[in-house]
Amino acid sequence: MVVDLKESRKKIDNIDKEIAKLFEERMKVATDVAAYKRSTGKKVFDPVREEEKIKTLRELTTDEFNKTGIEDLFRQIMSISRKYQYKVLGSETNELLPFKQVDKLDVDKDTRIVCFGEHGAYTEQAMEEVFGTDITSMNRLSFKEVLETVANGEAKYGVIPIENTSTGGINDTYDLLLDYDITIVAEHVVKVEQALLGKPGAKISDIKKVYSHPQGIMQCSKFITEQGMESESYMSTSSAAKKVAEEDDISQGAIASTRAAKLFGLDVLKESINFENSNYTRFIIVTNQKVFLSNANKISLSFEIKHQAGALYNMLSNFYYNDLNLTKIESRPIENRNWEYQFFVDIEGNLNDPGVRNALACISECAKQLTILGNVRTK
Ligand SMILES: O=C(O)C(=O)C[C@]1(C(=O)O)C=C[C@@H](O)C=C1
């Protein structure tokens, strides 16, 4: 005979009441554990104890389905227990957060600021929109050189692009960020209107080959294909404009800004050739000091996790449990370790927020590696 649903639900309700009561009791014990750990300086996360616990609990269950189920359940319970302990401990993350809070970026006319690209590059525009023109600016032809110049102190700030609305994250930037001891202190968005530039007097039909930064080529891929033009990657959009201006070949064009056209004396053969009308690039401003603005509201992190089931899920749950909105996630392959990835995430918040500190304390203990890339003000 089939058991009546009401009867089964009543049984389930009673069992759940017991579980809820036991859960609360367990969490109270976790407070004692936290107090002990604080007094002895022990870490909250004890992976050996967790694995032993899972093994014992699996042995207490009968069939394979329940073994997997109890493992899932207790991995969650212990993860909640850890988060609770960090909260009780008030997340002592000072050594993790060697960042100094500042009210504004320290800059005057003698401050050296380095940007990517030749004069006329979009990055230069971003730099001038952030810092004005009364600065000591420097130009470097690769992202790597910009970051090196900042890391070794030759320039106080550096500006490079990190993301575009139509082509996504700029991989080269992500791949370099962890190679230098630098901090992202600000960001700036520029509307990018790519134009086809040619030698004075050239017509669109004269152009057989276009040069640009890979981003410029990607943003204008439809136009290039429609026109049947060949394309070749160049160091930056403005370097491409310079090349076309310097060489005596009317069949060469550059995809760059109208600003670059003016600077190098080129004709604008067609404006706005990017395939998406709303084409914006986000630039980051980096420095070699560990600082963040007091009104910063977005944190960028990078971490590596164990290559195992649930690792990313558990890591991201730290944001959920601390009520932090995750606004972006990127993954990049780790060199020489096929199919393993480095994660880059942005979350809303300020490094002073207790929830942020709590999440960072948890992540730093569980991740294989954690880097706080910076805390910036975003609109
Ligand atoms: O036994 C501990 O050390 C605890 O902190 C308790 C607990 C758990 O909830 O069972 C939580 C975190 C540790 O990683 C291991 C186990």
Automatic annotation (TrEMBL):
InterPro entries with a match to the protein in the record: ACT-like_dom_sf (IPR045865), ACT_dom (IPR002912), Chor_mutase/pphenate_deHydtase (IPR008242), Chorismate_II_sf (IPR036263), Chorismate_mutase_GmP (IPR011279), CM_dom_sf (IPR036979), CM_II_prokaryot (IPR002701), Preph_deHydtase (IPR001086)
Organism expressing this protein natively: Butyribacter intestini
Site (Essential for prephenate dehydratase activity): T281
The Chorismate mutase domain, residue ranges: 1-89
Subcellular location: Cytoplasm
SMART domains to which the protein is assigned, alphabetical: CM_2
EC code(s) of this entry: 4.2.1.51
Keyword field: Amino-acid biosynthesis, Aromatic amino acid biosynthesis, Cytoplasm, Isomerase, Lyase, Multifunctional enzyme, Phenylalanine biosynthesis
Pathway as given in its UniProt record: Metabolic intermediate biosynthesis; prephenate biosynthesis; prephenate from chorismate: step 1/1; Amino-acid biosynthesis; L-phenylalanine biosynthesis; phenylpyruvate from prephenate: step 1/1
Coiled-coil positions: none
Annotated ranges, domain ACT: 300-379
One GO term (biological process): L-phenylalanine biosynthetic process
Lineage of the species this protein comes from: Bacteria, Bacillati, Bacillota, Clostridia, Lachnospirales
Keyword hit for Amino-acid biosynthesis: yes
UniProt cross-references to SUPFAM superfamilies, sorted A to Z: ACT-like, Chorismate mutase II, Periplasmic binding protein-like II
GO molecular function: chorismate mutase activity; prephenate dehydratase activity
PANTHER family recorded: PREPHENATE DEHYDRATASE P PROTEIN, PREPHENATE DEHYDRATASE-RELATED
Cellular component annotations (GO), alphabetically ordered: cytoplasm
UniProt-recorded name of the protein: Bifunctional chorismate mutase/prephenate dehydratase
Highest taxon above the source species: Bacteria
Catalytic activity: chorismate = prephenate; prephenate + H(+) = 3-phenylpyruvate + CO2 + H2O
Domain Prephenate dehydratase intervals: 112-288
